[in-house]
Amino acid sequence: MFMNQNNIILETHGLRKEFGGLVAVDDVSVQIERGSTHSIIGPNGAGKTTFFNLLTGKHKPTRGSVIYKGEDITNLPVHRRAHNGIGRSFQITNIFPNLTVLENVRLAVQALEGVGFRFWRQTASYPDYTRRALDILERLGLAAVATKAATVLPHGGKRKLELAILLAAQPELLLLDEPTAGMASEQVPELMKIIEEIGAQGDKTIVMVEHNMNVVMGISDRITVMSSGQVLTEGTPAQIAADKMVQSVYLGELYDLPEA
Amino acid sequence: MMASKLTRTLRDNWLLILIFIGLLVFPHAVGWLTGSSPMGVPRGDRMIMRGESVRWQAVLIELFILSILAMSYNLMFGFTGVVSFGHALFFGVGGYVLGLALEYTQMETGTALVMGILGGVAICGILGLLIGLVSLRLRGVYFAIFTLAIAEMFFIYFGRLSLTRAEDGFSITDLPQWIDPAQNRLNYYYVALILFVLTFLFIRRLMNSPTGAVFKAVRENEDRAQSIGYNTLNYKLLAITLAGMMAAVAGMLQIILNKKVGPEILGITYTVDPLVMTIIGGIGTFTGPIIGTTGLHLLETVLREATITLGPIVIRVTDIWGVLLGGIFILVVMVFPQGVVGTWARWTARSAKSEPPA
Ligand SMILES: Nc1ncnc2c1ncn2[C@@H]1O[C@H](COP(=O)(O)OP(=O)(O)OP(=O)(O)O)[C@@H](O)[C@H]1O
Ligand SMILES: [Mg+2]
Q1: What pLDDT, in 10s, does the model give residues B161-206?
Q2: Residues B15-271, CATH architecture
Q3: Which of A42, A122, B138, B160 is most buried as measured by Cβ atoms within 10 A of its Cβ?
Q4: Total domain count for chain A?
């Protein structure tokens, strides 16, 4: 299939990660189209999170490369990739537990503005950052708990905060690692609606790992299926749903694939 | 506008301001209560440092010094989450540099004092930066062990260096008179008080700035701080550099107070004391290190002369101070798991049914 190179925001070439003898990511080459919502699915241990870690720079690949907006970023450190517009949320909630909810989000706003070394000005003299942080909290329904320590939030609140921190940094490319992990099912639609809105903006690209198939099928432009570190197949939601091989990978798994 | 800002500052800080005024008048108050002069006793054309007021001034000067040391340690340890076991290094090197400038150079006394202070602060800043650059990539306990090793190396080196008279150390004799604690202790008291207050205000200002917010983010979750775009190594380097420079100031105050420089200022005591005092007082709080230091220092001062009599056995408290300190430490940590200030803040927050402290 042909894709216009200018429309590719991120691509990997033969990306591989070994942990000792274990091949967690096995020569993965994918292309992510700008402005799309691209899901990655696959059973536990398929290497999805490790793949994200290679994209964000948390892990260095054993070999292969990561190209972002035409530039080879394989050796850039995590914080530089963040500055270039790659944002990430974590499967296992990864927040600043003893800071307030507001501070959690304001830190991301402040990172975007690059004022981290302004040690003589007071945070109070940046009311704009606080307002922007509060706007995002408002959007996620967390404004009422803004002054609470993040650690006292219930699990669902922490998942929302996880997303709020990511949004505050205004990334162009959002890597969402199971955004609804562990959330009560009645809370899922609310969160997915927000993610869908972001995807619909058109200027944001979303790569999402998600286990909830109903969510994935509804929201994705494309889906990549991973298994044992490899890309099994890739296609539109309809193609994936119809794929017999995908169904066989999931035999005995938790997924409830909708009829094609 | 200006007036409302001033009244707000006064209202938010009334307790601290009261304490500051208390410390300003302290030497005179003690003098008045005990009928001693805050200037000491005149003999010929000199003043002899005798009497209750000057004695208590020395106690408080030491308290200010140890508090500065503990506050600087807290900046790294409590606010940024960088655990070092080598803080004595900065305290000692600061002391040695100033001592060497005063006693081993041909500079005029006042010049030597200024150059020694600037040089010592700069050297300790650079030392902090270098140690950080070499070792901050090590995580947690490995970094702590590395700092311990460096500090011990300096301790052993200066303990053998014949130039600085090895273990005996050397005396400070060449000091501007106005600051000499053996002649003008009251002046020195105010110098130490001002440096103590400046350290407190500086750290508070820093921690309420964007930089301070990142320090806390590094402590809370370094991984996440990186993934939102902070080069966390640089912030840790900044914290250790600033902490090193402040500890150097404390070491300089100490050698002037003692009028002596020896390897003991590089000793493990000046690493353990700020660590213990910060934990007892409350890590990552503004007043915790000061409260911890005050509690322990005053206790030690009061008990220094005391003895415990168990039948025929008479134990001097000084001799078992280390054991006592350990016991107090365990007790306080059990009662106040977040330190005195941290636990207090949690209790009051809970009883007020409001938010936990920021
Ligand atoms: N840091 C690591 N060190 C060693 N092995 C690792 C590490 N991270 C992941 N692995 C291993 O790599 C494989 C892929 O793990 P990964 O977390 O990427 O899977 P995943 O697809 O995200 O699974 P899940 O759906 O459970 O989140 C697993 O076998 C895992 O144990
Ligand atoms: Mg995973």
Answers
A1: 989 888 899 999 989 999 999 999 999 999 999 999 999 999 999 9
A2: Orthogonal Bundle (1.10)
A3: A42
A4: 1
Domain assignment present for residue A96? The answer is no
A139-166 confidence digits (pLDDT tens): 999 999 999 999 999 999 999 999 999 9
Give SS3 for A116: coil
Taking the model in full, what pTM does it have? 0.92
Q: Which residue CA neighbors atom 6 of ligand 1 most closely? A: A19
- Domain-located, residue A202: no
* pLDDT exceeds cutoff 50 at A131: yes
The answer to whether residue A98 scores a pLDDT higher than 80 is: yes
Residue nearest to atom 28 of ligand 1 (CA): A45
Encoded amino acid at A46, one letter? A
> Between B136 and A56, where is the model more confident?
A56
Q: Where are the alpha helices (DSSP H) in B35-165?
A: 52-74, 88-104, 109-135, 141-160
Query: Which residue of chain B is at minimal alpha-carbon distance from A84?
Result: B229
Interface touch B229/A106, C-beta < 8 Å:
no
Report which residue type is found at B167. E
For chain B, how far is it from start to end, CA to CA, in angstroms?
27
Q: Using pLDDT thresholds of 50, 70 and 90, give the confidence band for residue A46.
A: very high
The reply to whether B163 touches chain A by the CB within 8 Å rule is no
Please give the pLDDT value at position B104. 94
- Is A215 inside a domain boundary? yes
- Partners of residue A168 in chain B, C-beta under 8 Å: 228
Which residues of A sit within 8 Å Cβ distance of B?
Answer: 56, 58, 77-79, 82-83, 87-88, 90, 94-100, 103, 106-108, 110-112, 115-124, 126, 147-149, 152, 165, 168-169
In contact, B55 and B193? CB cutoff 8 Å: no
Q: For residue B70, how far is its CA from the centre of ligand 1 (angstroms)?
A: 42
What is the band of B212 on the pLDDT scale with cuts at 50, 70, 90? Answer: very high
A156 is a domain residue: no
Q: Apex CA A152: angle with CA A146 and CA A153, to 5°?
A: 65
Name the residue with higher pLDDT: B235 or B338.
B235
**Confidence class of residue B312 from pLDDT cuts 50, 70 and 90?**
confident
Atom 22 (ligand 1) nearest CA: A49
Give the pocket of ligand 1 (CB within 6 Å): A 19, 22, 24, 42, 44-50, 91
Nearest CA in chain A to B212: A119
Residue owning tokens 């005063």: B102
Q: What percent of chain B has pLDDT over 70?
A: 97
CA neighbor of A174 nearest in space, from A65, A64, A38, A70: A38
Full residue range of the structural domain in which residue A251 is found:
1-84+211-260
Residue B139 Cα, gap to closest chain A Cα (Å):
15
Nearest CA to ligand 1 atom 25: A44
* Residue A67 near residue A48, CB atoms below 8 Å: no
Highest mean pLDDT among B82-86, B122-126, B165-169: B122-126
Residues forming a β-bridge with B315: B308
Give the separation between CA A129 and CA A127, rounded to whole angstroms. 5
Helix spans in chain B (H): 2-12, 14-34, 52-74, 88-104, 109-135, 141-160, 185-207, 210-220, 222-227, 232-258, 269-281, 288-303, 321-335, 339-351
Q: CB–CB of B229 and A82 under 8 A?
A: yes
Domain CATH code at residue A58: 3.40.50.300
pLDDT for res B257? 97
CB contact under 8 A, B228 and A82: yes
